[in-house]
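Predict the assembly for these two chains.
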Amino acid sequence: MAMVRQPLIFARLPTGVRRLLFALALFGVCFAFAFPVLWLILTSLRPESGVYYVHRGTEFTLGNFAEVLRDDRIVEAFVNSALISTLATFFSLLVTVSSGYMLSRFSGPASRAWFGTIYVFRCVPYISWVLPLYFVTQSWGIYDTYIGLLLPHIAVHICFFSWLMKGFFDGIDPSMEHAALIDGCTRWGAFIRVALPSAIPAISALAVLCWLFTWNEFLFALILTGNRVPVITVVMAQFVTEMGLRWNLMAATAVMALVPAFLLALFGQKYVIRGLRI
Amino acid sequence: MTPVPRPMFGEQQRFMLFLIAPAALLLALFQVLPIMIGANASFRDWALYNPKKTWVGLDHYRQVITDPAFLEVVLPNTFLFMVLSVAGALVLGLALALLLNRPFPGQKLVQTVLLVPLMVAPVIAAIMMRWMFNDQFGIVNVVLEGLGLEGQPWLVQRWSAFAIILLTDIWLWTPWFTLLLLAGLQSLPKEPFEAAAIDGTSAWRVFSHLTLPMLRPVIVVCVVIRAIDAFRTFDIVWTLTGGGPGRSTELFSLYAYVLAFLNLDLGRGSAAAIIGGLIILFVGVGLYRLVDRIAQSR
C-alpha cells in the first residue's frame, strides 16, 4: 500500500471532517456506478401501470419476470446464450493455453512472428472480419446454426487470450519444467503435468472472463444468425426497437441477463479481478 | 528453454508448431480467410439482392472515401469518440484509483460495486441509459423538471446523443482502468514516497513527479488496449441511437454494417470495413511502437 497522500487543504482539516468527506466521496462513487443497475432492477419490479412513474408509487410485482419467462423465444435465447458461452469458453481455453505457453517459453523468429500475428489480428475491428464471415458461413452452410455462431466466438478470443496466457506463464518459474525434462519427461509431459497445474488459477480467471465476454457479445450473433439461433443480447436489442414502450418487461429481461454475470462477480471476484488485470 | 538435451533436430520446432496449430487454424479460417474474402468482395459489384460479382476495381473505395457522411460525420465521430472515451475513463479511473489507494473499512464492498459495470453487457448498459434518458419518463428528465429545469429530448439531438453514448462507454470502462491502475499503484515501491514525505513535497509534485512517471507503463498499455477497442464500438451505439438522429452519431463499425446489411451493398460495406481496418492497423502499429519504446526506456 503506498503512502496516504492528501492535498494540503484536506491535510489541515480535522480528522473527523476528512473521514466524512472521504466517506461521502466513496458513497458518491458507488452510487454513480450502481445507480443505473439499481434503477433497472427497480423498473423490473414495477407493474405495467407504474412503469412510467418508477420514482413514485409503491406497487411492486414479480409478474414481469413470469411474463417474460412465458415467452418461448426469450427462454430459448437464454438457453442458447448459456450453451454457446460455456462451449466457447471450453474450446477457447483449450487452444489459447497452449498458444500462450508457446509464446512464453520460446523466443526466436517463430515465436516473434506468432506474437506479431496475434497483435495485428487483435487490432482488426470485429466488423472487418465478421461482415465477410457472413458470406463464409453461408457458403459453408453454417449460417444461422449453433456451430456457425460458436466457432467465431472461439476464434475471436485467440489473440487476446494467447497474449494474456503468455503473461500468466511468464509469471510461472520454468525451472520446474526444466527439472522434469532432465528427469526424462517429454516436452508435452512437462507442459501438461508440470506447467498446466500451476497455471490453473490463471486459467480459471480466463474462463470467467471468456464466459462473460461471450455472454455479453452482440455483433456476431446480429450478423451471423437469423431467426433460428436467438441469443439474449440480440433478442433484447430487438425488444428495445420493436417493443420499446414496454419498459417493465424490457427491464425484467435485462435483469435476468445480468444475474449470471453478477453471480460471477460476487463469487468469482478473485478470478475476475485477476483476469482483468491484463 | 535452455540447457535441455535435444536428441533430434527439429523436435522443438515440431512441439512449438503443435502448440499453436489449433489456434492458428481457427485464426486462419475465421479471421484471415474472411478478411481475404471481404477484400475480394470489396472490388466487386456485390449487392445482396443481386450479386453480379463483376469486377469494379477501386470504385467502392472511391465512393466510401468521398462519401460526405463518412468524411464529415463518421470519421470525426469515431476519432472523437475514441479520444474522449479513453481520456474520460483514464482520468476518472486514475482519480478513483488514487482515492481508493489506502486502507479503509468496506474496501471489499467498494471493489464489488466497481466490478458491476464490467459485468454488464454493453447492450444492457445501453438499454439502461436509454431508459434513464427517455425524454418522457426517464429519471433524468424527471429530476431536471423537479429542479425546475427543462427536460431534454436527449437521444434525438446530435450532441446530447453523442454525449450519452460517451457517458455509457465511460461508465462501462472506468472501473477497468481503476482496477488496473490500483494494482499498479499498489505494486509501486514505497521508498520514494517516504523520502518525498520527509522532504515535505507537495501532493501535486508527488503525483506528477513520482506517481505518474512510475505508473506510465501500466497507463500506456491500458490506453492502447482501450483505444483499439473504442475504435470498433458498435453495441452501445446500435442500441442507444441506431446512429441517429439521422446518421449523426454513426461510428465506423455501424457505418460499415449499415452499408452492408441495410443498404444491402456488401461490396461497399466490405470496402468500408477494410478502410477502417487499415486505419486502426496504422494506429495500432503506431501505438505498439510507443509501448515498445516506453518499455525499453524503463
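The mean pLDDT of chain A is 85. The radius of gyration of chain A is 24 Å.
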